[in-house]
Amino acid sequence: MGRFCSIIIRTCNEERWIGPCLSGVFGQTYRDFEVIIVDNESTDRTIEKARQFPIAKVVTCTDFLPGKALNLGIRESKGEYIVCLSGHCISVNEVWLANLVKNLDNPSVAAVYGRQEPMAFSSDADKRDLLLVFGLDRRVQSKDSFFHNANSILRRELWEKVPFDEKVTNIEDRVWAKEMLKLGYTIVYEPEASVFHHHGIHHNGNPERCANIVRIVESLRENEKTRTLYAHDLNVVAIIPERGPGMMLGGKPALTYTIEFARASTHLKHIYVSTDDEALADIAKGLGAEAPFIRPESLSKDYVGLEAVYKYSLDKIDGFRRAGHCNCRAAGEPVPVA
Strand pairing of 186-197 and 109-117? Predict the structure, then answer.
């Protein structure tokens, strides 16, 4: 027998999955464990079906938050190792638990998370996410705090020092793992400890969940040296193609409205008017735009596409820059980011 494990299974209306989930758990070769169900007030037959197995305890969680639910279950447990498993995850084989446990023989490992594989009827989006995120190579993470409590194991002694955050709405696992890395421990990804997970890790692209996760991840990284590219760091230029003599609108050239709208942008560094008409070029300059060249009339034919006009204009702008007649960078030239 090995170290005693407490398997904490979170459920909410898992009637469809809890039977196969527990069948897989109680069919493991590693037998030294207890099972505690933390149920989020299920209204179906989840608990009825769960009690058909020799589970140790059922704990009811109200006002569900993921870290709160796990902490409730762990406080009712007695295992030296804590296994976190979602009620809709099913072990792929009978050595899933043994493959999780063996990684904790190394005292520098705080926790381990296993592979998650899609089911045949999982959505394409969930299949994509699971297949890309959970690969075949084992990893030891000393900087990357990715960790997933749908299928994981951790040391109780470390949980006692740092319980799961009971306020975050999502990714309590990564918040906890971040703290473990700060303490000098590592996180291990073990692909041989695999479960089937029908809805994946992104819940079919739920936008509210996505927004919450992004907010939490950004807060986790606020003290890290990160590289973020903002629009105001870029050398963004506008090129306005206008064929002479131009249109009138409301008693003034239509070009006027376009330039005024462009000048209202806080992200544009330069506004260029590419025209074949000297008068329009003068109007552009009077409105604060730049018109450093007159393009050939051949580019104003009805059969000439805008792509050719833009290419000619960019080439001319770059030429002026290289000749020192323009104080802007070439369009597309890399911009240093602090």
Answer: parallel
